[in-house]
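Final report, section 2: Outcomes. Of the targets proposed, MASE1 domain-containing protein is the one most frequently requested by collaborating groups, and we therefore present its record in full.
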Amino acid sequence: MEDISIKKTLLYWAGFATLYTLLALFSFQNRDPWSFSSTVWFPAGLLLAALWLSARRDWPLWLITAGLLHALCGVYTGRPPLLAGIFAAFDVVVFPLCVMLLRMLPPLTRTSTSFQPVVTTLYQVAIIALCLTLGSILLSCCLLLAGYAVAPQHFISWTLAALTAALSILHYLQSESGNMPATRSRGYSYMVIAINLGMMFTFSVTDTGPWMGLNPLWVQLSVLLLSVFVLSARQAGLLLILQYIIMTTAISFALSPQATILAAWQTQWYLIFSAILTGCLSQFVTSHHRLLCTTQSEQEVIVQLAGSATCLMFYLNLPEGEIEWRGSPSVFFPNEALSVSTLVLLNAHCSPPFIADVQRWYQRAESAQFRQQITVQRLTGEQIHCLLFLQRISGQTHLAGGIILLSADTAQIS
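The predicted structure is given below as tokens.
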């Protein structure tokens, strides 16, 4: 198993190093006319994704690799070694700081309002923008101390290049793969993605100026925002990445030393604000859908509980197996409410054991409900017969459930 893990890590490292090198060399082909800084910086999104998706113990591997490749590619394309080292050093300092601060944000709870994910997304954007801005200021100071002339445009160029790449991939990283509503057709979603890509490619490659006063970017942004109501959060995140690649690549090939740097900045500002708006709207739609699914599941559970005088509802978080009781569990487990906080502990109080059946039902995903009669063993020696049931919630890993006291044991509940 250890050999397989090492081989897997080496494979990931080789892919990361190869892709980082190609993206860096491509980015260095687009230098602004007043410094050694590149107008676009594709590796920023790749490094952010590697840090986001990996454990902190693996960060040195990605950071050392990124720093060395950044410096080597810079020297290869004509940067002085000192300048290449300064840019590489701040590249591997700013992005780990971004990810650490993002992970410190409190996780969203299931009972949050639909607006809380929007606020969280804005916090994430503010953290990344603040880190990159401070990094740009420190980078400019170091370049001045090293004897290089730094223009104000240099500060703007480096910040926009890194911020555009980071925000374009942020929404894809924070989205979940299994949150697509069942009512949405995959074929319809693919058609919407194809329409967006065709529009992005057409407006980016062809010289389409305003038509009767209509800016094509407004059309593209409007279609992108409307697509959020059809696409899942992960599909919307993928669309933002493709938009960044298409538009930035088109700018890169169109850049010339004369007059296109302002056009590049305008496009980058568009990519930044479109990523913010699309991310916030997609998070709101996804959160609203989750709340609807949770409410529907709660209603189904309440219907199941309505026929019993003694019942208790709970949420089961998987794969952790943590139980969140929606009432006092002392009704079924007097004087031991704190000890029955996981599925394993609940299983230990019951006979026959049910945890294997629950895991098998959850993995197969064949039915929406799980029901099983159990006998609860109380510390007082009493045994009560109950019905345990679990209800799936569409697009989420946690389950709604409840315990119903069967009528024959009602007298044993005090």
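The CA atoms of residues 117 and 283 lie 6 Å apart.
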